[in-house]
Amino acid sequence: MKKHRTDKKISLKDAISIGIGGMVGGGIFAVLGLAVSLAKGGTPIAFLFAGIIALLTAYSYAKLSKKYPENGGTVRFIHQQYGNGIFAGGINNLLWVSYIVMLALYSSAFGSYGAQLISLTGTKEIDVRIFQSSIILIALFINYLSVKLVGEIESIAVVIKLIILIAFIGVGFYGFSVHPENLGQLSPENWESPILLLSGGMVIFVAYEGFELIANSIADLEDKEKNTEKAYFGAVGFVVILYILIAIVTVGALPFEQIANAEDYVLAKAAEPTLGQIGFTIITITALISTFSAINATVLGSGRVNYDIAVDKELPQFFCRQFWGKPVGLIITAILSITLVNLFNLQSISTAGSVGFLLIFSIVNYIGFKQHKELESKKWIHLMASLLCFLAFLTLIIQQFSQNRIGVIASLSIIVFCISLEWIYKKIIPN
């Protein structure tokens, strides 16, 4: 795999910002309403469940990143343990496809919030699919135009969305001080069963997966030995608290029926009771900025992932080709994401994303367990994290099968397809 090293070092603050930016992107705007529909008043607990698994997995990523501080992250960890065989290639292909799923998830959220913003102007309603498809094409064009511009957009977006989300939390808690009765929806009698709370947490796990982007920056991190764990735990810990507070404010702001009706744009709707139409508009614009920056970054990251996988001869060498100075995989990723977002609903896309990343993270945690001596780490943490990810993977499939059978079938089909494709490729073109 080619390394893309620079002489410029990044600080601990920069690394934490990368992790926060990767997590607080489109995920929270896309899946918050879905989480409430599954967990009801227990939604903050669902976010906590998912956050605990993310924190445990961050431990494995931190230890592996210190041992293998090269660009490539998850792809590199899998290669170190399993080489370039069919299993490693299949899982790395699954990582690429999971990025495609995330891109579809973010564009789905952009489409929903974009349609709401247009409706505020009194303009004739526009098909959500137009927003969903066009924003991916715009992001693709920006990626081809300037990678530097992608980074600048991401840096500005991180600051804007964090300021507004923290303000949203502050206003929400002020509302509770004026109307304490609103906290009643968070009481345990309004919680769903433990299995639904866990399932809700796993469906929204995609909102946390972005911390793995830190692995790609460790090579350039100042004082890696001291700062690697701080970068991962600082980013994930902050986002866990942020998500729980957002969930508390959202559940307390709206009746469950209104949340269900506004599932695709619930965060904007939750700002309405306290701030009125202005609050709805501000959060809607914030969602558009956040999801657009997430789409931009994901197009770039996924294009690089399939290029690196092809360099390692786990995808056809066609993916090493360039078009207009960029990997051709950027175009393929965009086309597949547009197809996916227009074929499946939000819940199916979210389920597919969570299933893919839970399986990948279970494997990465297991790699940490197998290499605990070299990593000088606590093997029981790696093992517990691996088991929890795999149990969450199974729980999500079992629970969603009754409610979202198409999403589960699509998720499992993706896994089988990625491994089968690698098997066929290795048979046709042996290394």
Produce the secondary structure layout.
Layout: H1 12-23, H2 27-39, H3 43-67, H4 74-82, H5 86-120, H6 128-145, H7 147-178, H8 194-203, H9 224-253, H10 256-261, H11 266-311, E1 322-323, E2 326-327, H12 329-343, H13 346-370, H14 372-375, H15 379-403, H16 405-428
Antiparallel strand pairs: 1-2
Describe the structure.
It is a multi-pass membrane protein. Keywords: Cell membrane, Membrane, Transmembrane, Transmembrane helix. The chain crosses the membrane at residues 12-39, 45-62, 82-106, 126-146, 158-176, 196-219, 231-256, 276-302, 323-343, 349-368, 380-400, 406-425. It is found in: Cell membrane. This is Amino acid permease. This protein is an all-alpha fold and 431 residues long. The protein has helices at residues 12-23, 27-39, 43-67, 74-82, 86-120, 128-145, 147-178, 194-203, 224-253, 256-261, 266-311, 329-343, 346-370, 372-375, 379-403, 405-428; strands at 322-323, 326-327. The two termini are 15 Å apart. A hairpin with a 2-residue loop joins strand 1 and strand 2. It is built from 16 helices and two strands. The chain has a single domain, classed as Amino acid/polyamine transporter I (Up-down Bundle). Helix 3 runs antiparallel to helix 9. It has a two-stranded antiparallel sheet. Helices cover 76% and strands 1% of the residues.
